Amino acid sequence: MALASDTAADLVYRILDLQRVVKCAAAASVRGNVAGVAVHGVLKFVGEGESRATQLAERLGVSAPVLSRHIADLEEQGYVIRRQDPDDGRAQLLALTDSGAEKLGQIEARRTATLQEYLQDWSQEDAEATAKTLKKLAESLKDSARAKSAGPRVPSR
Fold first, then answer.
1. How far is CA 51 from the centre of its chain?
2. Could you tell me which residues come within 8 angstroms of residue 23 by beta carbon, excluding any fewer than 6 positions away?
3. What is the pLDDT of residues 55-86, one digit of tens each?
4. What is the pTM of this model?
5. How far apart are CA 109 and CA 40, in angstroms?
6. CATH fold label, 35-120
7. How far is C-alpha 11 from the chain's CA centre?
8. Where are the domains of the chain?
């Protein structure tokens, strides 16, 4: 069954409001650090495994020049290294250094503690139900966005 228009509009408002509040909370959890919130996001994705910058930019939804600046910052701080892709000598792979992995662990611990502090009046069940709903929402939006970017389906004969 399709969503009612007013329900969809309310969801859009709630998502945008949540996005704004999450940015504020994330900024509060990284105050005083050398790297900003965006660079921490890059660090997180690089920490999930070696990848090419183009794949990383696509996954993060940023342009190559924006990502390049973040990677340069992370390299300068000693958190990320580049190496030649063995499958394509023209491409480079990005990976975390040991200090990058340590920094990522510190960031995640700080963000977790901040969220625990902010949600201290929540029950474990509320948090788990919200996480499940947010995961479902993210998956639906990703699947829909991927389908749309792939173009219209051509019926098979």
1. 15
2. 37
3. 888 888 888 888 888 898 899 999 999 988 88
4. 0.72
5. 13
6. Arc Repressor Mutant, subunit A (1.10.10)
7. 20
8. 35-120
